[in-house]
Amino acid sequence: MISESRIEFLSTEAWGQWHTELLQSVVNRVYTRVPFYKNLLDKEGIDPSQITSVEMLKLLPFTTREDLANHYPYDFFAVPLRDIVRIHTFKSSQLSPIVIGYTKRDLEIRQFLAIRAFNVFGVRPEDIVQICLDPGMSTWSLELKEAAESLGALVIPPDPLCAKDRIKVMRDFKTSVLITTPSYGLYLLSIAKEKGLGPRELSLRIGVFIGESLNDRDRKELERGFGLRAFSIYGIMEAMGPVMAYECRDSEGLHLALDHIIPEVIDPKTLEPIFNGEGELVITTATTKANPLIRFRTGDITKISQNVCKCGRTTWRIEPIKGRADNLVNVRGIKIDVGLIKQLLIEYCNGYEPKFLFVIRKKDFLEHIELWVAMDPHIFSASLPELHLWIRGLEGKFKDYIGLDCVVRPVEKRTITPFLDRDKEVVYLNDNEINSLLL
Predict the structure, then answer these.
(1) Has domain 108-234 been given CATH number 3.40.50.12780?
(2) Residues of the chain above pLDDT 90, percent
(3) With 83 labelled, which of 172, 259, 350, 388 sits at a CA distance of 20 to 30 A?
C-alpha cells in the first residue's frame, strides 16, 4: 500500500502498472454498468479483457460533452441513484443539460486533491481565505471553500459585494489567501492601487488562480502588487473538480492528479495520440465511482511533460492552456458554448435565426461580452421603445442562460459580414476596433 504522501513520487514503471490496473478496472466497470459504454465498445468490437496494458488506451473510443448531454439524465451513472449524494448540472447546446453525479467517495477524492494542492502552496489553519469568483463558477467556489474549511482555515466565500468592498474586506479581515481568476485578480489589484493599498497595507501571502491561464507577465504583476506567491490550478467541470492539476513551488507546469486520472494529448483533427507535442488534453477518470469517463475530450489545448520536476514529483505536468479545440469560449473562467448562444437567439426570435457576432472586449483587465445582432425586419420593429425592450429582454435571457452580463447591440448586417464570411462568430476586439466598426 502506497501512502498518500508518497503517491506523487512513483517511478515510471510503477505509474505504468498503476494505470494499467486502474484502466482495466474502470473499463470493466463501465462495460457492465454503463449502457452507453457497453454499446460503444460492442460497436467497436472491443472486449474489456483485451485491455491488458495502459498503452492499449488508444484503442478505446472517446467521450464528448455532447455524449453526456444526449444521455441525460442517468445513462452515464455507474452506481444506483441511492448511492449518489450530490448532482451538478451544466448547460449544453444539446436538448438536455449535462448532469454529473457524485458518490460520497467521489467528493472525498475531489476534496483531497484540493487539500493536497493547498498544502503544497502553504495554506495553513490560521489562514483567512477569500474566494472571489463569478456566479457561473459556483461549483468551483463550493469545492474550494469546503477544502479550505477542512484544513481549519477561515473562509470568506463569494459574495455580491463590489470590488471596492471586497478590497476593504481583504484589508480589514487580513485576508492571507486569495482565490480568483487572473483577470479578476488584476482588477482587484488596480482597485487596491487606487485606494493606495499595497503589500504593506494588505496581508496577502498566497494567490490561487483558476479558470484562466496565468502568464508570466500577469504572475509578476500580481506577485509584486499584492506581495503574494502566485499558484495556478486547473480543472474541468465534468471530471475531477477544480484541482485536477496544480503548480508546485517550482512553477514549471501544473502537476496532474496522475493517481486518479490517465491523461493523453491527441491531435484534435486526426484524433491520433501526440507524445511530444501540443494538442488536445484527453482524460480517463480512473477512480471516479458515479460518473467514470473514458477518454473524455476536454477541448483544452496543452502539452504534457513526463520529465521529473525539480520538486521530485514524477506526476506528469501540463503547460498552461493555450486555447480550445472546440467551439467553447472561455470568458472569465466560464466556458460558453457558441452553439448555446445560437440556440438562445433562435428561441428568443421565435424560431428565426438572425446573423450575430459574439464580441469579447477587454476593459479594466476583465473580459466583457457583447452580442452584435444584425438588423433584420424579421425581428426588429420600427418602434424605438419596442426595440429597447427587445434588447433588454435578450440581455436578461443571456444572463439567465450563461450566468454573465451581456450588452446586446443591434448593428447593420454589413458590420459583421466580413467576420462571418471568414467563419468567425467569436472575435476579440479592443475599444478602438469596436469604435471604428460602429461608426
Answers:
(1) yes
(2) 82
(3) 259
